[in-house]
């Protein structure tokens, strides 16, 4: 990974899957940028503190539900890095009330939030990453999924629906990126204690 350039979405604290991936990438020689949600001070502080342990890394505020934030993040990557080799999409969220109880009781707004953050956000990220990766001869996009997309896991509810949508996106984006040597994969890490 020496000389590779990566952008990591989804670090919240030291137990985040995204942080484990970032440590592995940095340990293999990649230079990284991290995003953080600007409206959650605690998370921003955590991300900046963790990123400071990786030489040459930068931090960028980004709310993935705002197109202008996502565009600004990739603009910053273009200015700082000039291209991109790796994109880590480790972003997921559903309102707590949509995880308690039954899927049957999921509100429209909770459904929209879960799918917007957990699934849709990969599409604009990939759209902005593809040209930056093409400049470098290709790249790799990875996202996090979970087996609940394929089978029932109690209390995962609307997140399972979001993960199923995310996996479908991965197949289509992998197809669309293939000719430019851009790989798109989903990783199911299994049970891990995270935020």
Features:
Rossmann fold; globular; 6 strands; six-stranded parallel beta sheet; alpha/beta; 6 helices; 195 residues
Oligomer: single chain
Backbone shape? globular
User: CATH homologous superfamily, by name?
Assistant: NAD(P)-binding Rossmann-like Domain
Mean pLDDT, nearest integer? 95
| CATH topology-level fold name | Rossmann fold
Which regions have little confidence, pLDDT < 50, spanning 5+ residues?
none
What proportion of the residues form beta strands (DSSP E)?
A: 15-25%
Strand order of the largest sheet: 3-2-1-4-5-6
Rg from Cα: 16 Å
Query: How many distinct folded domains?
Result: 1
Distance separating the two termini: 28 Å
Element pattern in H and E? EHEHEHEHHEHE
What kind of sheet is the major sheet?
6 strands, parallel
Number of strands: 6
Structural class: alpha/beta
- For this structure, what is the CATH class? Alpha Beta
CATH architecture: 3-Layer(aba) Sandwich
Helix content: 40-55%
Number of helices: 6
């Amino acid at each position: 990974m020496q000389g590779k350039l990566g952008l990591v979405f989804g670090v919240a604290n030291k137990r985040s899957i995204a942080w484990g991936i970032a440590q592995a990438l940095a340990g293999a020689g990649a230079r990284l940028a991290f995003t953080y949600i600007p409206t959650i001070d605690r998370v921003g502080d955590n991300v900046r503190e963790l990123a400071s342990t990786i030489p040459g890394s930068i931090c960028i505020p980004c709310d993935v539900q705002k197109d202008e934030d996502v565009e600004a993040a990739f603009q910053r990557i273009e200015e700082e890095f000039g291209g991109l080799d790796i994109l880590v999409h480790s972003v997921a969220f559903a309102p707590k009330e949509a995880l308690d109880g039954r899927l049957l009781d999921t509100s429209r707004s909770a459904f929209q939030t879960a799918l917007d953050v957990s699934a849709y956000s990969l599409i604009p990220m990939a759209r902005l990453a593809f040209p930056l990766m093409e400049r470098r001869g290709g790249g790799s996009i990875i996202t996090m999924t979970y087996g609940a997309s394929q089978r029932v896991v109690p209390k995962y509810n609307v997140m399972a629906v979001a993960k199923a949508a995310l996996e479908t996106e991965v197949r289509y984006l992998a197809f669309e990126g293939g000719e430019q040597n851009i790989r798109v994969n989903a990783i199911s890490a299994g049970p891990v204690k995270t935020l």
